[in-house]
Structure formats: structure tokens, C-alpha cells
Amino acid sequence: MNQSNSLKVHIPQKAAYSYDLVVGNGILENADDFVKKYTNAKNFLIVTNEKVKELYGKYLKIDSAKWFVMKDGERYKNFDTLKKILDFALQQKLQRTDCIIAFGGGVAGDIAGFAASIYMRGTDFIQIPTTLLAQVDSSVGGKVAINHEKGKNLIGAFYQPKAVLADISVLKTLDLRQLKTGLAEVLKYAFIEKSCAADLNYRFYDFLNQNKEEIYNLNPEILSKTVSICCSLKAAIVNQDETEKGLRTILNLGHTFAHAIENLTNYTVYTHGEAVAAGMKMAFNLSLAKGFIDKDYYNKACKLIDDYDLIPSMQNFDKEKFYDKMFLDKKAQNGKIRFVLPSENFKAETTSDVTKEQVFEVL
Questions:
Q1: Which among 137, 156, 174 is the end of a domain?
Q2: Active site residues
Q3: Neighbour tally for 350: CB within 10 Å
Q4: What's the chain's Rg over C-alpha atoms?
Q5: How many domains does the chain have?
Q6: Confidence label for 15 from pLDDT (cuts 50, 70 and 90)
Q7: How many CA atoms does the CB half-sphere of 32 hold within 13 Å?
Q8: Phi/psi of residue 16, each to 5°?
């Protein structure tokens, strides 16, 4: 029997706009009914990649749907692909009252969502994420974007979907590397949990510490709970700060370093999660050096990252080039790099009080 858990993302700043985020096992079989429940659109444009369409396209049987199949990979999340999506939508005479469905990982979700945000000044948009990374992070909260040659996600918008459908059964077709890239974002939530909302207490670090084997074995119950906790923590943040004016920046723990790693390697050497995992270790190193955290918590956090074996061998980067790339991070303000750093057990905060020498030390 297919079971699901429905969470609510509530945006008070937008006339109490809210939408459902449904997490479950085997629920993709009801995708058509799900889509029709959340939009009155008559026509649909589904943005996906070849692998997802081949594996799971049979579950989206909407007669009026047109498929745009893009190449897979972060390097294709660019202006060229965005233009092709918009051109295709115009060729198919997609109207403002129609709907764009993102069906795939974070790349498909980000670029399809951005296309929806600007096509005829905004069409309905539904997320059906098929990777762990997309299910726990990029499909939730309405951040949509494309990359620029100068940096990651520099061109984008905040545009909320009508709904999100996350079926954990599709994760069984992920290879180990893609599973690990999602787990980096999963572990991030353990390190920021106590900053998300005062009324939440999942003890997520302990949960992850105790269930590593079950997660890697794709135990449906444990995996569903993992995704639900991550989504609940992110929703708690987005509910308070949709457009990243303050609290939402903590979701970028490790990402200032990670985006520099990805940019310097042209998005072709490391996955986003590999870069984030390395970036989190750098953030913990920096936080320890600045005295924000004690050695016990530092050891505890780094052990969890190491136990999940998320970081491949990293190449040596030119420190000056690395430091320069960090100024292109979206959080940078007034000519200063802003870092999200662990501040105490399972909390994080944003600071610009970091010297160039301190950054060089942790690289």
C-alpha cells in the first residue's frame, strides 16, 4: 500500500500563500491525479532528462503534455538551455494558464522553475523531484535559477511551485555517487536544526548517526522519514524568510566554499554534494579557528561527514583564485564574503568577520 506524508510550506509574505509537499513511497503512480489536484491547467510542458523519462515517464500520462528533454548535468543549467525551453513553450503555444512540470533532479527543477517564473510573466509550476538532493533541498522553497559563467545560480528568482511530489521509491535507481551527493545536503540539516525553528526537535544528528546503514540500504521507512525531516526543517525556514533576507542564509552552510569549487572546475569534476561536503568541512575548520565552536562538537560533526564517506579526493586549488571566486557568491555584500558558519551545537550563523588569511588556512 502506498503511503504518504503531507507537509505545508506557508509563505506569510504572499497573502498567506501555501502549498503542499507530499513525501511517500510509490506515490508517483498517482502523479496524474496529483497534478490535476493542484492546477486547473489544460496543457502541460514537462521538463526532464532522457534517463528520467525512460525510467519514469510512464507515470505521467497526461494527454496534453509536451516533453522537453534536456541534457543532464549542472553545466547545462544555462542561458542556452533556458532559451530552448522558452522557444519550445512558444512553439507549443503554451499559455499563461498552462503549467510547467519539473520532472527530475535539481538541474531540471531549477531551470524549469525559472522558465515558469518568466514565461508570460509566470505560469503554474509543479515539482516532481527524482533525486535525493532535489527532494530534500532544491525542490522546496521556490529558489529557481540558472548558472552564469561567472558563478552558480547567479541568474534566478524566488518562484514558489503549486505543489511538490517526492516519491522516495525512485531513489533506488540512483547510483551511489548521486545518492551521496544528496546525503551531503541531508547532513547539512543536522548541523543547522536548532536554528530552523524553536518548536522543532528531531535530534536529526542522532537519527543520522544511528541509521547510516539503513539509509544506504534505502530502507523505505527510514528514507521517507529522512526526506520528511529535511523538508520540514527547510519549510520552517522558508516560512520565516522566503527571499533569504536573513535566516534562510543558514541553508548555505558550506556552500560559499562549495560554489567556488564547482566554478573552478567548470561543474564537471565534482557533484554539488561532493563540493558541499568538502565546503562543510572547511566551514567547521574556519569556525573552530575563530572559536565559534569547541573541539568536541568539531570532532563530532566531522566524524559524521567522514562516516558517510561523502568527500572524494580534492585537487589542490590556487588559493588566490579560490578566494576571488568566493566574492561571486550571492551572499557577498559590500565587498565582503559572507560565510555561514557553525556557531554552536546544531546551530549556524552568517558572518563577514573573516580575514583572507583565515580562509587560506582552511583551504
A1: 174
A2: 121, 143, 185, 234, 244, 248, 252, 255, 259, 272
A3: 18
A4: 20
A5: 2
A6: low
A7: 12
A8: 60, 35
